[in-house]
Design brief:
Length: 215
């Protein structure tokens, strides 16, 4: 079985990277991580990659005069691996439209809200302030506008009455760790097609439970 070659871009902790590493360690998993690139040196995600024996590279944004040169260095770091798909996993830099276009439909991201609700930062505090009863995470293809693009997988979790941003983030993060490997699997199996600006999934088993909160 030819596995899809993936590169992962990180900026920090790398718990979603870890979920992808763990998934890729499965004998039947259809993807493999060829390289992990971080824009910050010394982050926990790099140590996770090294422990798994995955090549790492630092492309430090501070070493580049502007976004365009940073993005071309990033592009070169990814292209030389032969990566067929790039996964953003807590990558905290905005990418230029040129970069996004170069990787169009081969670049995915995970975001800790049910998009299109709460794009951007501080999602959990904003979800709590809005009083939503259900939150979650979204894996989507990346477009030039931040946190926009065809949705591949979403995971929903309840917001509890005594939640603060940290407790909600932890519950959503657990969902992220399930959703990101699933999205990667679906893409690697060739089951995700973009039709218009929606992602269509072949042969997917729909969730049938309704999440109602409060129950
Ligand atoms: C996650 O919540 C992800 O959704 C967001 O940034 C966070 C990264 O966490 N984009 P980690 O580095 O994967 O632990």
């Amino acid at each position: 079985m030819a596995r899809l070659k993936v590169a992962v871009l990180i900026s920090g902790r790398g718990s979603n990277l870890q979920a992808l590493i763990d998934a890729c360690a499965g004998p039947d998993f259809p993807a493999t991580i060829a390289k992990v690139v971080s824009n910050r040196p010394g982050v926990e995600g790099l140590a996770r990659a090294e422990r798994a024996g995955i090549p790492t590279q630092i492309v430090d944004h501070r070493g580049h005069p502007d976004r365009a040169t940073f993005d071309s260095a990033l592009h070169a770091a990814l292209a030389e691996t032969g990566a067929e798909l790039v996964c953003l996993a807590g990558f905290m830099r905005l990418l230029t439209p040129g970069f996004v276009e170069a990787w169009r439909d081969r670049l995915i991201n995970i975001h800790p809200s049910l998009l299109p609700a709460f794009p951007g930062l501080d999602t959990h505090a904003r979800a709590l302030a809005a009083g939503v009863r259900i939150s979650g995470c979204t894996v989507h293809f990346v477009r030039a506008t931040m946190d926009e693009g065809p949705i591949i997988v979403q995971g929903a979790v309840p917001v509890l009455a005594d939640d603060d941003a940290n407790s909600l983030a932890a519950r959503v993060l657990a969902a992220e760790h399930r959703c990101y490997p699933l999205a990667l699997r679906l893409i690697a199996e060739g089951r995700v097609h973009i039709v218009g600006e929606r992602a269509v999934i072949d042969r997917s088993a729909p969730a049938t439970d309704v999440l109602i909160n409060p129950s």
